[in-house]
Prior knowledge:
This protein is α/β, with parallel strands linked by helices. The chain has a domain at 2-26 and 79-117 and 166-217: Rossmann fold (3-Layer(aba) Sandwich). Helices cover 47% and strands 15% of the residues. Helix 1 packs across helix 9 (201-217). The protein binds adenosine-5'-diphosphate and zinc ion (ZN). Residues 9, 30-32, 35, 52-53, 56-59, 64, 85-86, 88, 92, 162, 171 line the site of adenosine-5'-diphosphate.
Amino acid sequence: MNILLLGAPGSGKGSQAEQILKENPFVQISTGDLLRNALAKKTPDGLLAGEYMRKGDLVPDELVLKILKERLREPDCENGVIFDGYPRNVAQAEMLDGILKADGKKLDLVLNIESPFEVLMARLLSRRVCSKCGKSYNMISNPPSADNICGVCGGKVIAREDDREDVIKNRLEVYTSSTKPLRDYYESRGVLFSIDGDRKIPEIYEDVKMIINRKGKN
Ligand code: ADP
Ligand code: ZN
């Protein structure tokens, strides 16, 4: 099964992916993570992507497509993929449809997690991540230990470079103008399920799980 998690920055896509992975043989593909890895390795693609990410703008479609295609070539994608952060505009959605179709595959479910702007902003401002293993924390709802050490790997827990108020504002605007139209795109294809994201992670996951299981049975 191939699932797309659709939702604004801060909507909790990553947290839901984490829950889904515990119970299903899928892999998660986050284009944000792929781009940040490329940037950390200082590859030419990564350095170019960094210019856009720092401002909260979308990285050019061709560049993201290239790293996505490389990732999809790996054999672990056969059992199903959770797409997180891709597609982010209609052009990317069309490209993804094309890639999947060429492989005899398709998107089976699009889970659209909806939350109010103020909630997203507050969550992103208090979000922290482990600099080593990428585990997510939140200074309000799920803080790391007092000395900001990751409970999983012992790495240093830090704020992401693009989780600053001005950059967050831009990311949310980009979401509204570019990514939100995807709701209509997938709605008309009959694969869209909208979920109230202004709740606790396990409560949201109950809905997510029900939708996935229902799909798995037919
Ligand atoms: P968030 O969803 O919280 O904004 P991500 O980690 O998904 O965080 O993405 C971080 C940044 O990476 C985005 O602001 C954008 O610059 C870039 N990015 C990620 N995915 C894409 C994509 N599919 N197309 C263009 N840019 C992307
Ligand atoms: Zn860690």
